[in-house]
């Protein structure tokens, strides 16, 4: 039993010599100390020897074959040399991605590796959607100048704010769906979708897809509504105007542009999320009304039990 333990330790030491560049100096010192302790038969128990061997084994690089399975069921076997306590570390995963990139031709940064137990890993090859400048795929148009003295009508007039101006006009310059972004007074909640005829002043922009076969309007609307913080960060400020946005900066804003099929999937998924959000808001509104009724009930109870007259 003793000779077996010593022999195992000698193998560990030789392995360490072969891979000394992979081990820190304090680990090498640990091995040397442990080996000396293991040779002291009279002072080290068999339990202590086993414990030392197990501890040492965690630091010893060992070549092991790992299985990587892609989501399309393709399987790759790779032999990697790492100590047990290094498996799963950032360095380990980086080497896995590097090798998988060489095997699949997929960029390393678009490879996701997940351990599914033991030496088994699943690999997801993420899609790299191109980022395009907003001005390349969108028609960005400013509104027009209008005066409050214009002939009043049934068409509301909007500027950069969500509320209409105090006067109306007779003819709209925007119909259908319009994605509106203010030119001045930009906030982190400045993008809005308007679905009725209105007149837009020169204090705001509207965005429309140049080509529905490339960029779906619904997808554009969804993306811009989720990128309001990015739009806000483009705004500049001066002594005269706070948070104003230039056409040039808006045109340069980059958005992801996946294939049309993916755009449809994203729009569908976001609609479900919006429906859930709306349902939650309605429940909150209902609860707030109920709270208001209960608060009023408390007052009614006080007046009824104390027979305190209620004055109008």
Characterise the protein shown here.
It is a single chain. It is extended and about 100 Å long. The chain has four domains: 2-57, no CATH class; 62-125, Phosphatidylinositol 3-kinase Catalytic Subunit, Chain A, domain 1 (Ubiquitin-like (UB roll)); 131-257, Adenine-n6-DNA-methyltransferase TaqI, Chain A, domain 2 (Alpha-Beta Complex); 258-312. The chain has a four-stranded mixed β-sheet, covered by helices on one side. The termini are far apart. The chain has helices spanning 2-18, 25-38, 46-57, 90-104, 134-137, 217-226, 228-234, 247-252, 260-306; strands at residues 62-70, 75-82, 111-117, 120-125, 131-133, 138-142, 155-158, 168-169, 178-182, 192-194, 199-200, 204-209, 254-256. A hairpin with a 4-residue loop joins β1 and β2 (75-82). It contains nine helices and 13 strands. Helix content is 42%, strand content 20%. The protein is of the alpha+beta class.
Number of helices: 9
Strand content: 15-25%
Derived structural class: alpha+beta
Order of strands across the main sheet: 2-1-4-3
Q: Using only CA atoms, what is the Rg?
A: 34 Å
The rounded distance between the terminal residues' Cα atoms is 99 Å
* Number of E-state strands: 13
CATH superfamily heading of the largest domain: DNA methylase specificity domains
Proper CATH architecture of the largest domain: Alpha-Beta Complex
Q: Spell the H/E element sequence.
A: HHHEEHEEEHEEEEEEEHHHEH
Sequence stretches where pLDDT stays below 50 over 5 or more residues: 1-23
If you consult CATH, what is the topology of the largest domain?
A: Adenine-n6-DNA-methyltransferase TaqI, Chain A, domain 2
Helix content: 40-55%
Major beta sheet, specifics? 4 strands, mixed
Mean pLDDT: 81
How many structural domains are formed by the residues?
4
Report the top-level CATH class of the largest domain: Alpha Beta
Principal-axes shape call? extended
């Amino acid at each position: 039993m003793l000779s077996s333990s010593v022999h195992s330790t000698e193998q560990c030491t030789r392995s360490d010599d072969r891979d000394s560049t992979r081990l820190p100096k304090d680990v090498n010192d640990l091995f040397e100390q442990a080996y000396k302790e293991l040779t002291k038969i009279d002072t080290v128990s068999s339990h202590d020897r086993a414990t030392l061997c197990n501890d040492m084994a965690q630091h010893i690089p060992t070549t092991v074959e790992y299985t990587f399975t892609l989501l399309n069921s393709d399987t790759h076997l790779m032999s990697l040399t790492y100590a047990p306590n290094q498996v799963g570390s950032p360095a380990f995963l980086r080497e896995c991605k590097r090798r998988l990139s060489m095997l699949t031709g997929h960029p390393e940064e678009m490879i996701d590796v997940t351990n599914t137990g033991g030496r088994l890993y699943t690999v997801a090859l993420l899609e790299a959607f191109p980022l395009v400048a907003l001005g390349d795929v969108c028609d960005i148009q400013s509104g027009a100048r209008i005066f409050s003295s214009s002939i009043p009508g049934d068409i509301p007039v909007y500027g950069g704010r969500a509320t209409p101006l105090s006067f109306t006009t007779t003819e709209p310059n925007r119909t259908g769906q319009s994605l509106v972004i203010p030119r001045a007074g930009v906030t982190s909640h400045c993008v809005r979708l308007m679905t009725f005829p209105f007149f837009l002043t020169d204090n705001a922009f509207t965005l429309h897809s140049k080509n529905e076969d490339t960029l779906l309007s619904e997808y554009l609307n969804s993306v811009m509504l989720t990128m309001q913080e990015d739009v806000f960060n483009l705004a500049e400020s001066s002594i005269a105007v706070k948070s104003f946005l230039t056409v040039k900066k808006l045109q340069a804003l980059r958005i992801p542009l996946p294939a049309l099929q993916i755009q449809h999937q994203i729009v569908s998924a976001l609609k479900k999320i919006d429906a859930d959000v709306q349902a939650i808001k309605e429940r909150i509104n209902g609860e707030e009304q109920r709270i208001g009724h209960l608060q009023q009930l408390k007052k009614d109870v006080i007046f009824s039990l104390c027979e305190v007259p209620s004055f109008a």
